[in-house]
Specification:
InterPro entries: DNA-bd_dom_put_sf (IPR009061). By secondary structure, the chain is of the alpha+beta class. It has a domain of about 55 residues: Arc Repressor Mutant, subunit A, CATH 1.10.10. Helix content is about 25%, strand content about 10%. It has 3 helices and 3 strands, in the order βααββα. The protein has a 3-stranded antiparallel beta sheet. β2 and β3 form a beta hairpin. The chain is elongated.
Length: about 90
């Protein structure tokens, strides 16, 4: 099966939305980032700066457009999102 080069839009032309395939729910975003679903919920509640607010809600759950999440892997700080806890050793 060959594609007609005239039927493929050039890269500079925006491609129309893919419908539901264009949406990321918490589970799909967690899979993309390699974390648990609960981790995404915690990040949302803590409002980590690199995670954009959801674009909407679907069936009661947060959803983002794929375009909103472009580059999220680069913006995400490695490790825990908050400051590290200070560990104090008890006096001997």
């Amino acid at each position: 099966m060959e594609l007609d080069p005239g039927s493929v839009p050039p890269a500079s032309v925006p491609v129309p939305s893919q419908g539901l395939d264009d949406l990321y729910d918490i589970g799909r975003l967690a899979d993309r980032l390699g974390v648990e679903h609960a981790t995404i919920r915690v990040w949302l509640s803590r409002k980590v700066p690199w995670l954009p607010p959801p674009d909407g809600r679907l069936n009661g759950g947060a959803v983002w457009r794929a375009s909103t999440l472009e580059g999220i892997e680069e913006r995400r700080a490695p490790g825990r999102p908050g400051p590290k806890r200070q560990v104090t050793t008890p006096p001997a």
